[in-house]
Amino acid sequence: MPGRVSDSGDSLVPFSPEVRDPIVYHLQHGLKPPISRLSISWSRGNCLRVSFFRPSSSESDTENSNKEIGGKVVEVKLSSGDEEIDDAQKRKIAYGSVSPFALLQNRKNSILALSKMSMNSASYHVEWWQQVTEYSKEINSLLGNPKAAPTSVIEDPRTVVKTVEEPTCLKAAWELMEIFYADKQSHAWLPECLVDWLADYDSLLSATEATIHSKLVDLQKELVNLQAIEDDPRYWEGISSALAVGWLDIVVKLLRLHGSYQVDQLGSRETENGLVEAVAVLVSKMPRMRPELSRRGLGECFKTKPDFMKAWEKWRGHIAKLDCSAFWLKCDHRQTREGLRNLLQIMLGNTNSLTTATCNWMELYISHFLYIRPFTMGLEGMYSLAQRCMQLRPMSNTHRLMGLILGILGENTEVVLAECSREFGPWMVAHAIELLTAGSNQAEMLLHEERYNLGGISIEELHRLVYAQVLSSHALTWQIAPIYLTSCMKQGMGLLEILLYKQPVQHNRMLLKSLEICRLYELDSISTNLMKIAGIYHWKHGRKGSGVFWLQQARDEVRLNRIAQQLFDYVGKSISDDSLKQWEGLIELLGSEAKTAGGLEFLHKYRDLKKSLQKVQDGKASDAAKQAVESLILLMKNPSTPQRFWLSLMHDSLKLLNWREHPLLNVSQTNLLLNKLQELSIARLRPDFCESNLPPQALSTVRLALATNLGRAILEER
Amino acid sequence: MDKSLITLDKGTNCSSWNYSGQRLATGSIDGTLAVFDSPELDSSAFTCTSRFKAHEVNIVKVVWVPPEFGDAVACICGDGTVSLWEEVEEDAQTVKWKLCKLFESNATQVLDLQFGISLTSLKMVTAYSDGHVKVYELLDPLELQKWQLQAEFQNVIDSVSTFEKPSCLSASISWNQQRGDSQPSTFALGFNSDLQQFNSSKVWEFDEAHQRWLPVAELALAGDKGDQVYAVAWAPNIGRPYEVVAVATPKGIAIWHLGLNPENDGRLSVEKVALLSGHEGEVWQMEWDMSGMTLATTGSDGVVRLWQSNLNGVWHEQAALET
């Protein structure tokens, strides 16, 4: 949810309320007008599906192509972030940032717990710094690595600008945040950090207008064609521009391409060459207030201000001396003379020369740091300097990186957040907040304060939720959304539950993944629900076994009971072997937790009977017959056997009652069955009696069989 | 940013995605119900897997049954009948859509219906063209055939007006999708009718102790109670200390905050926090995203609009999707 806290009087940093016009997207459905109706539906995350319907009796249906098309369904992914980066790269970044983020949260919690115990907030801060810096570097490395480019063994002397990897605005923005918020150690040489930053990312600024980088790239193309480059004003312009922003290696390299270095000219242009070389040496000896040299690798480093000042004064002295030197008069080549003296002016900090040499305010700003105010000043001072530079070198439109840097310099956390969110998307905000809150108590208060307007959550949590939504909308990234959701104290779990509920469960792999996440975060009710959905899905789609399995996992007694009830329908019916097997299997499955379903005891016994009866049918094994009788008697004795099945049971067992060799049931057993039969006959008279669907003569057949058996049994027992 | 997923048959009138967004059911003017599926997870290739004649008349709305009760849809037809269709496989091979239940219409027609889960049972709220509301309950969680009428009432708060019969053009129902067991079932309902007292959206809550539905809030200010309601949408609540409900009327889209707990008189506290205008004409549909932070709406101007609250709680139109 992008937006800023506008000036409502209670915000920490007031600024004017800004209600921006809605962003207008154009959907391509490719249908011919008219469209009669629309229908919308949110899919997971921030993915919206829109159905377009065409009127059915449209007159424009003359063309064949559109004849059968009644409408289209279009999927729209909203605010998934920076357009500059493709989806695969975005996913790579998303996956890569999970572990640094999770690690940071872990450490934050443990450091917090420790500092609470020892009440030593100082050590908390120091340790916290290191963690944040480490986190920032790790995230930074995910965004591409233009620094670790291999340098070719044989360097073409005419290659001045090397593009190794296309830098991205996202990385540039992250590095800016890192410089100002995370990397506290380098604060002493903040200006030099910005010099390096511009060196890496100046090319990005040329998307809209010319920059020093684009000028140098153009110059490089020309170098091959130029005979006497020192005659060309573009050569001197390029050198002065590169010098203005501190790209000393390029300056020296270009200077050494000067025609006076050529062997055949050395004699005649000795003075000229001496001057060029003198400037080149001065350039390469420039004192820098920084711990070590950058990739632009020239200059002399000083770590402390006094050392640096001493060297700086001395260096400036050399430049001034050279500027006043009499050799200039002996230099016949006008362009060289003027070009070199302009370079001296730049190094002496001449504002006009700097302004002319730079293309936009950012470059001018950097040149000020290099040649006018080479020290760290407060952000306030940096901000006013930036404003002055903007006046001197205005840009026709604000680049998004410029918007960000102004927000940072203006010390306005809300602007920084709004810029991050609007220009770089939810990933950037969710991860950069860690840097913002690490530095300042004010930002921490602003971002961690729980707001009623946001539903009781903080801005930090809001942005994590928004980012988790983005992750949720893709099948390859939803699995990492829980990491961010569980870092949200208030509403993360609520959203995670909904997210899990929306995962399709008919794919087993998907179901197992969801259940694993439920287990990890102790979301028992959701996992129960997912298993229930899966159970019903399989049950209804002919996979009864899986259905019962998942319903059991879900401990869904209501549904399992209903299933058990359905199994009763098989009782007393002659069923095929296959369905008997399936039926048996289900009872087996249900039986593993016998207590969950009522009436299962009966079903188990009934299955035993059914099995033995089948064996009896197969052969004449009397052991099996005896077993079947036992099962039958057990069933009939058991009070849990529903009355409505009594007749079916006996009817099923007719064969036992009519056993040819000898009566299988003894007198008392036969009497028991006869009593049951009698009870049944009486019950039949009651209005609520449920008639079984046996043949009408079933009762009399059974009665006859029992009577016969009784007679034979009495005779036998005598 | 946008990609085409499905090309619809001629005459398609309405569509509805299932809970996971993997299946789309569509209804058409000749009574055909079609189901589109994506065989692969998150593939954008959808194919029609079933197409059958569900009715002799046009289907105006399709609603999926919650997945805990199977893969099933309810179709509301132009003549006001409702049919329930369920996908079953007899032997894990032949997929069949079978008719489970037909709710015939007499003099009155069903205008809208929505399913809600309370405790373990499935409830179906239907709104009729005479301003009546009927709540059905599923008796057997495995069988979508067996429904019982649990309650019938009118969308009015005072019982005096129940003698009058309005004629309603449309109705809109939205359940509070609270998944917690302890929460009572609640839904909001508004009508577009010719009798004022029926129109305004009321929040109905099920009183388990007495097994009856009670109106616990009215989502209209004193002067707006007669406004026809085009649509209501209850936002998912992932942890807010209040509920959010959107109500669309000819005056605009109102965003309401509802208290979570009843006050002394048993009513929920309500507060209208925004009135959004943007759609010219009727609002057809309103849908909240899964976090309840973004409201998507569409209407007769053919534009999809997205609404969000900024950090100060000020609601505004965040984006418009035009064609």
From TrEMBL, chain A:
Nucleus as UniProt keyword: yes
Subunit relationships: Component of the nuclear pore complex (NPC).
Protein's recorded name: Nuclear pore complex protein Nup85
Main subcellular localisation: nucleus
Cleavable signal peptide: none
Sorted UniProt keywords: Membrane, mRNA transport, Nuclear pore complex, Nucleus, Protein transport, Translocation, Transport
Role, per record: Functions as a component of the nuclear pore complex (NPC).
Protein species of origin: Macleaya cordata
UniProtKB/TrEMBL annotation, chain B:
GO MF annotation: an example: structural molecule activity
Chain positions of WD repeats: 276-308
Listed Pfam families: WD40
Keyword Translocase tagged: no
GO biological process: cellular response to amino acid starvation; positive regulation of TORC1 signaling; protein transport
Principal location: nucleus
Family under the similarity heading: Belongs to the WD repeat SEC13 family.
Protein name per the record: WD40 repeat
